[in-house]
Request: fold
Amino acid sequence: MEISIIGASGYTGIELMRILANHRNVDSVKPYSRTYVGKKVGVVNKSLVKFDKFQNFHDFDGEKTIDDLDSDVCFLCTPNGEAMRFAGTLIEKGIKVIDMSADFRLPADVYENTYKIKHTATNLIDEAVYGLPEIFREKIRTARLIANPGCYATSAILGLRGICAAKFKSQFFSDKIVVDAKSGTSGAGKKTEEGLLHSEIYNNLKPYNVSFHRHRPEIENILRKLDDLKNLKISFTPTLLPISRGIITNIHIFLKENSGIADFNEITGHYNEIYKDEFFVRLVGNVTSLHSKISNDDFEIQLKDVLHTNLCEISLNFDAYANRIIIISAIDNLLKGASGQAVQNMNLMCDYDEKEGLMMAGGV
Amino acid sequence: MEISIIGASGYTGIELMRILANHRNVDSVKPYSRTYVGKKVGVVNKSLVKFDKFQNFHDFDGEKTIDDLDSDVCFLCTPNGEAMRFAGTLIEKGIKVIDMSADFRLPADVYENTYKIKHTATNLIDEAVYGLPEIFREKIRTARLIANPGCYATSAILGLRGICAAKFKSQFFSDKIVVDAKSGTSGAGKKTEEGLLHSEIYNNLKPYNVSFHRHRPEIENILRKLDDLKNLKISFTPTLLPISRGIITNIHIFLKENSGIADFNEITGHYNEIYKDEFFVRLVGNVTSLHSKISNDDFEIQLKDVLHTNLCEISLNFDAYANRIIIISAIDNLLKGASGQAVQNMNLMCDYDEKEGLMMAGGV
Amino acid sequence: MEISIIGASGYTGIELMRILANHRNVDSVKPYSRTYVGKKVGVVNKSLVKFDKFQNFHDFDGEKTIDDLDSDVCFLCTPNGEAMRFAGTLIEKGIKVIDMSADFRLPADVYENTYKIKHTATNLIDEAVYGLPEIFREKIRTARLIANPGCYATSAILGLRGICAAKFKSQFFSDKIVVDAKSGTSGAGKKTEEGLLHSEIYNNLKPYNVSFHRHRPEIENILRKLDDLKNLKISFTPTLLPISRGIITNIHIFLKENSGIADFNEITGHYNEIYKDEFFVRLVGNVTSLHSKISNDDFEIQLKDVLHTNLCEISLNFDAYANRIIIISAIDNLLKGASGQAVQNMNLMCDYDEKEGLMMAGGV
Amino acid sequence: MEISIIGASGYTGIELMRILANHRNVDSVKPYSRTYVGKKVGVVNKSLVKFDKFQNFHDFDGEKTIDDLDSDVCFLCTPNGEAMRFAGTLIEKGIKVIDMSADFRLPADVYENTYKIKHTATNLIDEAVYGLPEIFREKIRTARLIANPGCYATSAILGLRGICAAKFKSQFFSDKIVVDAKSGTSGAGKKTEEGLLHSEIYNNLKPYNVSFHRHRPEIENILRKLDDLKNLKISFTPTLLPISRGIITNIHIFLKENSGIADFNEITGHYNEIYKDEFFVRLVGNVTSLHSKISNDDFEIQLKDVLHTNLCEISLNFDAYANRIIIISAIDNLLKGASGQAVQNMNLMCDYDEKEGLMMAGGV
Reply:
């Protein structure tokens, strides 16, 4: 099978190639980039030169390139506003499209308000499937166009999903949900800005977009679909971490006065239920008995356990004092938060083993 | 003037010496340590050997040492449960005592519940003054015994203080205050635990004590005193950062339905008022007009601006969508969060310039 | 096939499991550890729990365990001085043994001088094959006992090997070879020492064992075998880096007065020759023409290109001013410098594809 | 006294302001910058806003600004090639000039060869004094123009100086001196290049300018002046470290065959002699007896002991096996390697206490 990647020299494009290097169903990869035309892929990641399947960088010349493009699958790692120009042409040619940008994640009006970009392919928004396999697996299998989720959104939605059952929604203050997320610098991409220089970040920590971040509407848009929680509101605040990879998201949820530990136990049972067959999601600890004794084999959540893997770990905790549930979700922003999830989607669309290419084990 | 430091080889002890090195009222420093008896202070921080005022490490032999101790001021950098054995003897001899541990920060019952240590000097708890000059400056001037605040507590209390005016308390949900704090590894001290090894932390992030941390009762104990907010509850969750110094605390507060931006503006005005003469607290931006235009000279909050300084920076933000106030507080955990604040207290107790020794400017 | 790992909870043991997780010829892995008896492997690396092939930790009770042990291959990740007690028993039972310690890397007298440990299995030293496939591949295929190379040694020997041809040995000052190496902290293992705490390392750099390090005799021992360079002397100095993984070794070699660029070109040609079929070694740039124009596809050497891979990159440079060759060698200390190389050796011993399990692509 | 800083928004400019904030002889500082005209200095370092002595940024308009400039001292933190245009005008007006660039560090022909810039003020090169107080203190006192040393050059020259006595020069191979230096990223300045992004550096290490770096001629130029070592050659190779501040330089020197430990002892005695009264240079250990017993108060060299200080630490070691001396020199590149040394020079020129403003104690 042959894969094309438009915008292959950025962090998500490189990470895609890194995964596809060991993907047994992929024979050939054509990377496109304006900057590195004609160069070997080694120019952006030297370890890739050991794999024959990578062609040298092809030139990317907008619509013209798209018109001529011929592949089984095409990943679009382009800035917001670009994929809407290309996706239609590609899917009409029968090419499966996975868009890493935000172009097809939101209803047109929300997109335009959030990204301040006029949407020019609104007809495709309904067709696009939000590429979170743990929720939309069946739709993904037959999709022609995938809106690959944002990194913070993946982390928050997987963490929050279990509380969004209809039976729980009356138990907590649904508009008092704090999502305090932290991300490594690769999440900001390869932008050569002063604020992203190593010297500026190394001994630093930067909260940003404190009262509004563009992934907040994305999180709400998906969660509201799940259980008709039309009024669900998230209070989202991100922080830039002085590490290169990884996201940890703390989710604080308050139960109502007449609720408590019994409800928490019911909720953890529900999480166990929805994730028990999910390979890439792991609940930390024997969650149903979290309130009682923790078994010897339980471990605390930490970022390094998911780094360099496609896993999402979720820790469920109860604070009886404040009648608060604390859900902590950890992912590698470039894998489960971007390119790993994109390959998981490709595997489903192509009827491959969903785990193919994604069985990495992490390390220090 | 002569200073004694009991437990001088830990991070707070070393940081005290680092500050006292340039303190113009301090002529002589006697460090005590069981580990380094007879050694030069350079054994724990080589740059200190350039300052004549430091004596070699004296042996510390518990009560016996305390009985013989003779100094103007004594800093106790001892583990919880030790200072309560020594403080009485010292203040009876007329030595001003600044305790860096938790021994005198809480009412006896709360202390015993929180630290699982029997308190043996409960008579001194009332006498001890909580050493946060921005709140208790006048009491500190005449105190014999200071309970130097915890690092997270300093960050959270300074950030929360402005909302604890009686006139605001009906505007927010006082039991839905999320305090999501992050600290560098020096906050954990020099404990040689596997989890604190560089290899374990470098590409990591670890939430810990997720549903209960010992600084939560301390924060509440102080804030409840301020405005008779007897029911104030904090939902506190800390995270260990892969940097060596610094704390950033995100505080999320929800306004009630009939409150909004006008109340936020009133609150920011109150913060401006209470901190306008405080040298070591800086509100980021021209806060009273934060909701309108930010002036050219305003800057965002980031940890590096307070590192290696005794400053606390506080950023006030409003999220109209969720009717949420986000207060972000940044300190250097070893300075304003520990030893810098301790010297600030000493300066007040000794009638020196409050800023003496503490006028550091930070850097990359 | 079944694998046993003695001492599986340290960094090299965990990294072995991380590789074996995706090794298609390995069906079952039995980890041994005194600390974690009965626990799941997830207790040391949570991402491993997703792989069925890992048994829970078995107890390790010295000779008794070894007597009962039954596996196709046994990796010994034990402290120096232990493997010499166990290796004989294991190979007599027909178990292939790969020793990660220094026990079989040196002649007995050099070992005893270097490690200050009495060698009790000197008869096995001659039988043991030094596990550097790029030099001893054929011997490794039939070996019963492998002395897996040290991390610095791997980096230095692969970098120096090309200058040790008999035809070059008269061209440089063979006793003025400076090897200035730098390693991340995982090279020091999981020792809970104050000097390895994150707070102590994060903004630090520590030269250590400045005039004598135990890998120097190992480097010389191997290189002297290659070309009868009996007088070869290395001047080795290591430095501890504030990162968790990776080694960069700078090798400075001086040519004699009557030698120069032409000799350097001949040497680079020789490096091209010896490494042209080596999958895991990559010369940076089109080395034979390094002195002239560097082609567009050439890239500089940097550590991140080999991190999380089993690759060794080598850069060859000439300084005409000082008539000096600068060879720079980069590896991941836990992969090509330890566990990756060990699996490469296992693959050769078991007649598997040498690259099986080792085709990782690196990333930020 | 009033100070002007041209190019005050880069790392050396900011560090100058950080030092001058606490300099008791400096009343007023005028920072110049094209980027931040009219803004408060807080825009580049917020902790500076607490000091009244800093004016807002003035515009810098080349010669016109210089013609109008009026100050006691002017620091030029401009790119190479700029200071030669301004220095003459300034010193004619009686303003003491400290140039942080390379414009006046080298003879004109060496400068032009090295920096590929035509020198337009060659008449000032002879007048300029190289600002390394430990060598040129008396000349600095009366200088009108200081060529402030490069960061690597400071580290290497202070480390090498003691071997450059006439009596030692016949004992080592003077053209086989390897200087293997490592620097944090602030040494590269605030350049917004992809290679300096945090994501690219965090888990990385990059050797660069491997066979030629511009500080090599500077080191040789100064050392050759000291002892008529006209043929002294340095083999210099730098590496970029994944930390923000600090330089460690390893210097490897080979003794001739008939020399040995006795010569090393004589050399260490000489280092003790030349540095015994130097406040900002510290020899690690009781160097004259390094070969015998190290006393209890001796410590190893490490970068963190000099970070955030103006100190240079030097460790002297002997490798009897290779008859090699290893000298290790550690500085903070922004302090002793740039702005700290510049203020040290200013103090000498203005007849202030040489240590004024520079008595920082370092920390984790």
